[in-house]
UniProtKB/TrEMBL annotation:
<keyword id="KW-0820">tRNA-binding</keyword>
<protein>
    <recommendedName>
        <fullName>tRNA-dihydrouridine synthase</fullName>
        <ecNumber>1.3.1.-</ecNumber>
    </recommendedName>
</protein>
<keyword id="KW-0288">FMN</keyword>
<keyword id="KW-0560">Oxidoreductase</keyword>
<feature type="binding site">
    <location>
        <position position="170"/>
    </location>
    <ligand>
        <name>FMN</name>
    </ligand>
</feature>
<keyword id="KW-0694">RNA-binding</keyword>
<dbReference type="InterPro" id="IPR013785">
    <property type="entry name" value="Aldolase_TIM"/>
</dbReference>
<feature type="binding site">
    <location>
        <position position="71"/>
    </location>
    <ligand>
        <name>FMN</name>
    </ligand>
</feature>
<dbReference type="GO" id="GO:0050660">
    <property type="term" value="F:flavin adenine dinucleotide binding"/>
</dbReference>
<dbReference type="InterPro" id="IPR035587">
    <property type="entry name" value="DUS-like_FMN-bd"/>
</dbReference>
<feature type="binding site">
    <location>
        <position position="140"/>
    </location>
    <ligand>
        <name>FMN</name>
    </ligand>
</feature>
<comment type="similarity">
    <text>Belongs to the dus family.</text>
</comment>
<dbReference type="InterPro" id="IPR001269">
    <property type="entry name" value="DUS_fam"/>
</dbReference>
<comment type="function">
    <text>Catalyzes the synthesis of 5,6-dihydrouridine (D), a modified base found in the D-loop of most tRNAs, via the reduction of the C5-C6 double bond in target uridines.</text>
</comment>
<dbReference type="InterPro" id="IPR018517">
    <property type="entry name" value="tRNA_hU_synthase_CS"/>
</dbReference>
<keyword id="KW-0521">NADP</keyword>
<dbReference type="GO" id="GO:0017150">
    <property type="term" value="F:tRNA dihydrouridine synthase activity"/>
</dbReference>
Length: 327
């Protein structure tokens, strides 16, 4: 699959943009485990043009994680154009427009998935951003606003006509948020549409290597994107890539090996930020890790992880788990 000159190979697997998750340290870790392209946390266009410090930090990328996309969101054409130009100066490989975030503080203000209620403005913004920058522009969106307005098949054509060079579709409506099952049938319909010639990337509920391969085989997508399934499990890219390439499951990764990866994730987060902010950022990823699923009476330990404030405290909890449970 190619996005302009960027060759992502066959059956690429991408790391989805996620707020408070896809910081540089986590992106690089996923990249090392096989992610073919990574995305930054989504960046507010309004905050960007006001040079808000925390927002500006989200533009920090390094060559080791390339190809990397920076994703922006907003509800005003002029602001989005200005933000796009700022982003282009930081030299990402791709600029992605977020028309898919369903959370109230974004969609409720008309940005993100909220734009699904104002298609003319969505298209106006897309055209303007494409015209404003020289790097490839892509879009991420959803099936539609709600079950009665699943408009993605016609919307995909309209977005393509605006000049975007790839489209990512999350298989839910905004009304669904992250509940229920992702519906890939409409993603498949977009891909099969003879008018669509840009790459179509599918997103939603890709949680196993088998499901990843199934999405390629059944729906014909050019790439898949993994989001929440990477929480506390960055090695999912290693598992998925191996299965897609060989048709066989990767030999089981040991519990100790996975624990070492989580420790590394803690240290990477702390080194990127500082101890206090790094722990605040990473502790919920660890608590959500599927490697702890099935451990009896784990609730109190999980709560302790979520309350840890230092590396020493968090590592002592991991040592306790390692010493008292064999998985």
């Amino acid at each position: 699959m190619k996005i302009r000159h960027i060759d992502l190979g066959e059956h690429p697997v991408l790391l989805a943009p996620m707020e408070d998750v896809t910081d540089p340290a986590f992106r690089l870790m996923c990249k090392k485990f096989g992610a073919d392209m990574v995305y930054t946390e989504f960046v507010s266009a309004d905050a960007l043009i006001r040079s808000v410090g925390k927002t500006m930090q989200k533009l920090n990328i390094n060559d080791e994680e390339r190809p990397v996309a920076i994703q922006i969101y907003g509800k005003d054409t002029a602001t989005m154009v200005e933000a796009a130009k700022i982003v282009e100066e930081t030299r990402p490989d791709i600029l992605d427009i977020n028309f898919g975030c369903p959370v109230k503080r974004v969609a409720g203000k008309g940005a993100g998935a909220g734009m699904l209620q104002n298609i003319p403005l969505m298209l106006e913004i897309t055209r303007a951003v494409v015209d404003a920058v020289k790097i490839p522009v892509t879009v991420k969106t959803r099936l539609g606003w709600d079950n009665d307005h699943k408009i993605i098949v016609s919307l995909a054509e309209q977005l393509q006509d605006c000049g975007i060079e790839a489209l990512t579709i999350h298989g839910r409506t905004r009304a669904q948020m992250y509940t229920g099952e992702a519906d890939w049938t409409l993603i498949g319909e977009v891909k099969k549409n003879p008018r669509i010639h840009i790459p179509v990337i599918g997103n939603g509920d890709v949680t196993t290597p088998q499901r990843a391969k199934e999405c390629f085989d059944l729906y014909g997508v050019d790439a898949i994107m993994i989001g929440r399934a990477s929480f506390g499990r960055p090695w999912i890219f290693k598992e998925v890539k191996h299965y897609i390439e060989t048709g066989e499951e990767l030999p089981p990764l040991s519990f100790d090996w996975k624990m070492d990866v989580l420790r590394r994730e803690v240290l990477d987060s702390v080194n990127l930020l500082d101890e206090r902010r790094g722990i605040l950022h990473v502790r919920r990823h660890l608590a959500a890790s599927p490697i702890f699923k099935g451990i009896p009476n784990f609730k109190e330990t999980r709560i302790a992880m979520l309350r840890a404030e230092t590396v020493k405290e968090l590592f002592s909890i991991l040592d306790y788990i390692k010493g008292n449970y064999t998985l």
